[in-house]
Amino acid sequence: MSINLQPFPLRRSEIAHYYDSSSKCYIASRENQFFFNLENARGRFCLPKNWKVVVGKSFRALRRFFRSDKSNAIFNYHRDGIVCLYQGKIYFYDLIRKTLIFSASLRQCRNVLHGGIAVTDNGIFFGEYGGNAERNPVPIWRSEDDGRSWEIAAEIPGGKIKHIHGIYADPKGEGLWIPTGDFKGECYLCFAPKYDLSSLVYHGDGTQAWRTVGLLFLDQKLIWGMDSQLESSKLQIWNPKGEKLREGRTFPGPVWYCKQFVDGTAVLQTTVEKGPSVMTNCAYLYYSKNLMDWHEIASFQKDRLPMPYFKNGVIGFADGPQTKDEFPLHGEGLKKLDGRVLLAKIG
């Protein structure tokens, strides 16, 4: 198994937020600039600047230090607008009117982890991912008008968790899965049945085994790699219908992101960060046909800029329907991948 990497169509982009392998639709960004291609209608828009954007404009290292490159962007359900999270604010870009709307300010974070916004016909949802040292209540945001306006629909009580790692729609339409973190007693996999955030069900025991960012779905099972720099990150397999959590293989670092392709196969990555269980200076990319057996297909060495000030070594993926024959990945803090988006093909 091997991987071929080619330049992304938009070479100056730093993050690929969305990509459709069939239609070639995409959203990509470079700092406060966002670029889109939707049914061959291309365009761009800029979010408001602040001093961090101005200072980091010409230097990638400064953009990393000030986190002025970090953002989220996703097409809304009806694909007539783009929702963006940037520098602690929510924006909506209307693709019909070509207008930008400021929607709301976040409480505890600049933006959320990649892939962690759930776009459904029951609304758009995300949970805040911030430092939250005081363990205040963690907001869950919802838009009921397809991304144009937002409200805090629920809060996870103060002291229960540090933050939310993402919100994911169940593929069978049964509700929302919400992983949380980070430390002892804070790691759960919550479920909102029928998208009802007022009746969250907490699964797990708060240990690192339940600490995850991304989720993979296989029949009745949920599968994830542990996002832990404290303990060895292992594959976890769980059936919500009553099975106990089962362990699979061990990965050489915390698993932040994963991407499931349209045929059910998947990739996942390991992150380079500081912690007792991180024993390598490389971020690894793995591929699996059955979500149980994982094969290393690429590795990228951490660059020399120190963590965490200039970011950890991370490989990120894009939302959207993709195949193993064409999917984008982007990198941070990694040699030959930092600040770049590449198109990958697994052969």
Outline the structure in words.
With 347 residues, this protein is mainly beta. The protein is built from two helices and 29 strands. The protein is globular, with a radius of gyration of 19 Å. The protein starts with a strand and ends with a strand. The model has no long low-confidence stretch (mean pLDDT 96).
What is the helix content?
under 10%
Q: Could you list the spans in which at least 5 consecutive residues all have pLDDT below 50?
A: none
Count of distinct strands: 29
What's the alpha carbon Rg, rounded to whole Å?
19 Å
Q: Average pLDDT value?
A: 96
Beta-strand content bin: 35-45%
Described by strand count, sense and barrel closure, the largest sheet is:
5 strands, antiparallel
Global structural class: mainly beta
Termini, distance in Å? 6 Å
Q: How many helices in DSSP terms?
A: 2
Shape: globular
